[in-house]
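RECORD TYPE: inverse folding
INPUT: structure tokens
STRUCTURE:
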């Protein structure tokens, strides 16, 4: 299996190599064509100079002077008459070339034309310039050997080849190095996710920068921390559940064995059966809460919202719970604005308020009162449950919505608390799009505030 660093290096190298080849080809052709153009322009310019001299001072001496002058340079000259018969030429100029050039069509225009510019196939570059005097007219042919040009181009090709190979090697090295640097964070992330998938959540990636890779690394770190927290919470949750179930089951088992004795007093037997009944109810309540939490976690429950009058709804809750408060020497009051309506799930709202009021009853002292106050806000309704109970310490308030957390464990167990009620309340409130907050003072009481949206879309 190819590594991503290798793939990136190969892809980048191929793409850059193609671009480099195209650029080098263009540059090569541009240099060669410019060089050929300069050579052709140079010999054509010399031909034009000879034309001017001939037109000003045409004579045998001038012709010989031109031929002699060109013999000292890398160019050759051929001067013909109007019928293109040779008048004079540079020594050593091949006769076959003379015949070939003379057979070419006559030039048009005073500044002459290029007769041959193919340096690859021909031995000479050639231009022709016409001249005219009172006594003579003809043509000045200029030649330059292409051998030096081909040698120059061969050297240029060699330089381009060396540059191309060197750049290719350097390109491969750079791309493999960069791809290693770029993919190293990805490889670390791969190893980290493999460890996470194998159940090892103690994974921490080093800072990877402030780009997308850095953000992905931070996300993996957060995922690892969350999974580690979930693993720890699950273990604690299972241990707490085992402990919560063990206590009432131990009571049930113990008192059942005692109640089954034949020589026990009937009054004591009834007392033991009552304790068994209470502990069984505790177990049933705990299992129901666990089942409710499981449905909330898996989103297996549904919120069915409808618009209903709040005051009759709250008074029905008061009618149900007030006797329990009164039997313990406590009072429950409901304060509701008239004609107040709410768009929510009435069954879930009842579950929320009953749970909070039941807590207010359990943890309040005799001769105290609990109040359920409801007011209307902008597109929302606020519920406030206030009691005069034992209160909650400031250090415990942030933890009370955690599952199985109880402020006073011995006291809560004695009162039948399982530590799941407030977790369920918080999840149901948030399922409605609302928010819940708690303020409390030890020894004076607790206030729970719930803000619920009151719109059709909320």
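DESIGNED SEQUENCE:
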């Amino acid at each position: 299996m190819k590594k991503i660093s290798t793939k990136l290096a190969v892809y980048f190298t191929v793409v850059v190599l193609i671009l480099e080849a195209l650029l080098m080809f263009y540059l090569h052709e541009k240099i060669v064509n410019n060089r050929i153009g300069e050579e052709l322009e140079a010999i054509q310019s010399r031909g034009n100079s000879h034309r001017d001299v001939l037109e000003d001072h045409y004579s045998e001496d001038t012709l010989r002077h031109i031929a002699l002058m060109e013999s000292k340079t890398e160019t050759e000259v051929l001067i013909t008459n109007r019928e293109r018969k040779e008048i004079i030429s540079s020594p050593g100029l091949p006769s076959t070339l003379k015949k070939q050039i003379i057979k070419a069509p006559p030039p048009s225009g005073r500044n002459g034309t290029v007769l041959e510019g193919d340096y690859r196939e021909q031995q000479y570059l050639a231009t022709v310039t016409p001249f005219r005097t009172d006594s003579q007219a003809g043509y000045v042919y200029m030649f330059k050997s292409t051998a030096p040009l081909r040698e120059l181009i061969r050297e240029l090709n060699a330089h381009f080849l060396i540059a191309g190979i060197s750049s290719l090697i350097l390109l491969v090295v750079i791309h493999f190095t960069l791809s290693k640097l770029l993919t190293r964070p990805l490889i670390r992330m791969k190893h980290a996710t493999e460890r996470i998938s194998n159940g090892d959540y103690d994974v921490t990636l080093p800072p990877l920068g402030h780009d997308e890779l850095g953000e992905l690394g931070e996300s993996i770190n957060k995922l690892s921390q969350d999974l580690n927290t979930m693993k720890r919470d699950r273990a604690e949750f299972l241990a707490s559940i085992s402990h919560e179930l063990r206590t009432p089951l131990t009571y049930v088992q113990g008192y059942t064995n005692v109640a089954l004795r034949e020589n026990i007093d009937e009054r004591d037997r009834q007392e033991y059966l009552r304790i068994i009944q209470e502990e069984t109810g505790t177990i049933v309540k705990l299992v129901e809460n666990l089942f409710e939490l499981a449905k909330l976690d898996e989103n297996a429950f549904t919120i069915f919202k409808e618009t209903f009058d709040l005051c009759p709804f709250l008074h029905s809750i008061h009618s149900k719970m007030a006797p329990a408060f009164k039997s313990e020497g406590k009072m429950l009051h409901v304060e509701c604005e008239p004609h107040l309506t709410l768009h929510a799930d009435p069954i879930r709202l009842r579950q929320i308020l009953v749970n909070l009021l039941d807590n207010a009853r359990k943890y309040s002292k005799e001769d105290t009162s609990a109040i359920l106050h409801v007011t209307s806000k902008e597109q929302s309704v606020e519920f406030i449950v206030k009691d005069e109970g034992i209160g909650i310490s400031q250090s415990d308030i942030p933890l009370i919505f955690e599952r199985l957390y109880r402020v006073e464990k011995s006291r809560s167990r004695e009162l039948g608390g399982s530590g799941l009620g407030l977790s369920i309340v918080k999840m149901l409130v948030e399922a409605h799009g609302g928010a819940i907050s708690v303020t409390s003072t030890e020894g004076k009481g607790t206030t729970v505030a719930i803000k619920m949206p009151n719109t059709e879309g909320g």
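NOTES: The longest helix spans residues 4-56.
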